């Protein structure tokens, strides 16, 4: 629907901010208008104020229409336009994105997601949403809009005619959950509305089979498919001449394996496996040498940076025997601690790039060691509980100061008590009172130098106070801690007596900041990495 030109406004204390709306998408729920998406422009201060005010729960005004935010988390986008004197801003419900849907508690049961088609082709947006969110086959992409048409509820849209972009925009609510989508597909197959397309793959399947039965009954079919796939390299083909330049000449089988891995790297990341002593190390060194020589032949002036992770005890052997003993004119650095990693990061950010083949070695047993964690929640009495005696204590968020919530055995949310975070005893009333009298009560509500053994499993990582709706007695009802998501863990400080370990840097986190500096990554002993989810 189209209205006369009006401004989107918000009042923050005694100030009034106004922006030009571009698109406003909303739904009517319980008599109020819940804003799903808003796009607007204005001076930077006004755009930032409108965005922040809405996320804090204030009402946006568009003429006689008032927009409220929903209980769901929202996201924001702001970017300057032109010379920077004008800013474009937008806020949108996180259920517009797959990432936001997957972050929703029990997302498989969620029966609400918001779809927007700027060009008006809502059918295409629906099909892509179903394929990406539920993994439905792409072969039925054109039929999904017809099958799931009853699960779409149109949203109301206000489009500013002075901004021609997105003039055909359409938006809907998709009300299907994972269970209902599967049931709809099953029903469409039974009714013949969906037909499984023919395939060249021939095989046998019985729902009662185990995986072993399936593999045995389809061994011939899978062997035929493997025969159709061209190998990356064959023993009768030539190999790169630079392999002969290695200081240790590999056996013929190892040389052909080097060539096969090099060819595979053009399309995907390979894994090289074999028994001890079969030459996996010399193959890895040979691959890096061939890749570097290929770059030189193509005229590249930049060297080749290789990151290799291996058990820490084997790093000296890797450096002196395997790498320097196999490749000539190679530089090898070992990251022994976080300070070495930070030094490398500073050099990279200062413009350092290798001129030749350069290895950086890191021990997998130290790569993810970081500072000891310390819970940053606040232990204090809950509001309204000091009527009699001690009152009720709970953990609170350090940013929004609302009680953190955890699920009980019945699946309901309740305030997090001491045992939800720590394993030992909580401070007594006497300890707290003594700390107050001696002005030794810390900001987290615990007495100074109070020893706490934090739980290592099932931690509360981020603020969870937003999971419960509370009514505040200040003007209007609003959600407590909407979209707070404050991180609740920080490094323990030795100066405060929180740990006996001096601060240390997580090497893996530092290496992530090197971005595209490394050309190749080699993982020795990859199985333990995958098993421990530390690769």
TrEMBL record:
UniProt superkingdom: Bacteria
Protein name per its UniProtKB record: Uncharacterized protein
Source organism of the structure: Paenibacillus agricola
